[in-house]
């Protein structure tokens, strides 16, 4: 006799409450093994591949790609005993049957307690009986969507449609990917015709010459974090322009050395090393304001965040204990970090627990900016483009390699003197790397 198990969207140990389904790696009827990757989801942190904890046959996929689902929601059902060879389990009291055969209660959020009211979802054609149903010789008959069509709509929209008596199967979604919105449901309830959406592709509507993209995933999380930081930490930004000709000369010399053979040595690696050294002399920039405990926490380590632009938005993976690494080790770590970020494979764990961040705006040809501090940190350094610039050297004007730096810091933790000293230290190390031997 088949034994069905439901696979919920799990909390990936980062306190998230929802994720977007990017792509399924399996389909109904597929045989899967333990720990096989079955789905790729995008959380507020990164794209994550989820493995299945059982072996068996997939019987139903409950969510379409592109939908946003809450943690704890059943996304897949499978038969873990397709051959009927499992030993019969001891009988358990059957839970109360659902209100209607076509609906099943969704599980509560993992780690967030039980919900007062469950969200319901129509079953697909050929769906397996839910494990929560009372044992019966035959599975309950579920309402079959027309032609196997499953309308795309978020749980709140489904509830609204149910409350207003609107059949979602009769609607054409106006959002990107044909997702049904609240406005679509209200128009149907009021007897209004839905707007024409057949010409909308990838969010672009030729009629309005506009492209609409849902705010979700990494972009949504980044926006929330930046707003929180801007309205919580009193930002102060200072600027410094420096001659980095000696640094660039040292870079060319090291690139030709045997020790750095095959290593991608960038100005960002020098900036990372300078930050780690300067943070030892001005530990306030590497501290954090703990509002709940009313304490300032001084951290005797530097988990260095590097802001990286990816197709999914800005992410800030960390180099753990960057202060313990040599210049060469930092260069290698930076290359690995940025390559993984661009591929969209940065794990959520790799973006947690930073103490200081560098954003390299110079790669875009930008001179400087006023960066926003990452929540949980007290300072961020922007590294600008290196340009050939007229510069006074020993009373004479010469063409030199010049860079601009900008440091934003939390004035609750870092005073103006401390911020200025730190920025001056970083600048001195980049203007003349030999200064490092005096630290």
TrEMBL record:
Indicate the enzyme's highest-level EC class. Answer: transferase
Matching entries from CDD domains are given as:
lipoyl_domain
Task: Kindly indicate whether the keyword RNA-binding belongs to this entry.
Answer: no
This entry carries the following GO cellular component terms, namely: cytoplasm
- Tell me the segments the record calls region Disordered: 82-153
Q: Name one GO molecular function term.
A: acetyltransferase activity
Q: Which stretches make up the Peripheral subunit-binding (PSBD) domain? A: 152-189
Record-annotated Lipoyl-binding domain positions: 4-79
| Annotated InterPro entries | 2-oxoA_DH_lipoyl-BS (IPR003016), 2-oxoacid_DH_actylTfrase (IPR001078), 2-oxoacid_DH_E2_comp (IPR050743), Biotin_lipoyl (IPR000089), CAT-like_dom_sf (IPR023213), E3-bd_dom_sf (IPR036625), PSBD (IPR004167), Single_hybrid_motif (IPR011053)
Protein keywords: Acyltransferase, Lipoyl, Pyruvate, Transferase
Keyword Kinase appears in the UniProt entry: no
Listed EC numbers = 2.3.1.-
**Requisite cofactors:** (R)-lipoate
Per UniProt, the ranges with Low complexity bias are 86-101, 115-131
Q: Which family does it belong to?
A: Belongs to the 2-oxoacid dehydrogenase family.
Question: What name is this protein filed under?
Answer: Dihydrolipoamide acetyltransferase component of pyruvate dehydrogenase complex
This chain's source organism reads: Amycolatopsis rubida
């Amino acid at each position: 006799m088949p034994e069905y198990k439901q696979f919920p969207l799990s909390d990936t140990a980062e306190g998230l409450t929802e994720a977007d389904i990017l792509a399924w790696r399996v389909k109904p009827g597929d045989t899967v093994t333990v720990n096989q990757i079955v789905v790729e989801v995008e959380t507020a942190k990164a794209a994550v591949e989820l493995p299945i904890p059982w072996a068996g046959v997939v019987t139903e996929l409950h969510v379409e790609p592109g939908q946003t689902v809450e943690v704890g929601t059943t996304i897949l059902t499978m038969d873990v005993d397709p051959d009927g060879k499992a030993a019969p389990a001891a009988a358990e009291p059957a839970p109360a049957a659902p209100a209607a055969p076509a609906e099943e209660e969704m599980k509560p959020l993992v780690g967030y307690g039980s919900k007062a009211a469950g969200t319901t979802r129509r079953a697909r054609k050929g769906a397996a009986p839910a494990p929560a149903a009372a044992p019966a010789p035959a599975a309950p008959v579920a309402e079959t969507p027309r032609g196997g069509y499953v309308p795309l709509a978020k749980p709140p929209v489904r509830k609204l449609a149910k409350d207003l008596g609107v059949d979602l199967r009769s609607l054409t979604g106006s959002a990107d990917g044909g997702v049904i919105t609240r406005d679509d449901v209200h128009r149907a309830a009021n007897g209004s015709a839905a707007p024409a959406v057949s010409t909308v592709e990838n969010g672009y509507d030729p009629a309005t010459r506009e492209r609409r993209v849902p705010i979700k995933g990494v972009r949504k999380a980044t926006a929330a974090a930046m707003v929180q930081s801007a309205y919580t930490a009193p930002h102060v930004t200072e600027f410094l322009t420096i001659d980095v000709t000696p640094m660039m000369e040292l870079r060319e010399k090291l690139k030709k050395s045997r020790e750095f053979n095959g290593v991608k040595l960038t100005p960002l690696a020098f900036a990372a090393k300078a930050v780690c050294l300067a943070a030892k002399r001005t530990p306030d920039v590497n501290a954090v304001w703990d509002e709940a405990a009313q304490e300032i926490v001084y951290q005797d380590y530097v988990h260095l965040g590097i802001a990286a632009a990816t197709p999914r938005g800005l992410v800030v993976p960390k180099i753990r204990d960057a202060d313990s690494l040599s210049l060469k080790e930092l260069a290698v770590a930076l290359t690995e970090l940025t390559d993984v970020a661009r591929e969209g494979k940065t794990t959520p764990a790799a973006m947690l627990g930073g103490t200081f961040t560098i954003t390299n705006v110079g790669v875009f040809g930008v001179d400087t900016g006023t960066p926003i501090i990452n929540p949980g940190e007290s300072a961020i350094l922007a590294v600008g483009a290196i340009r050939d610039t007229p510069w006074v050297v020993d009373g004479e004007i010469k063409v030199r390699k010049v860079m601009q730096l900008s440091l934003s810091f939390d004035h609750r933790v870092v005073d103006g003197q401390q911020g200025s000293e730190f920025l001056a230290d970083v600048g001195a190390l980049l203007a003349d790397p030999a200064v490092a031997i005096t630290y």
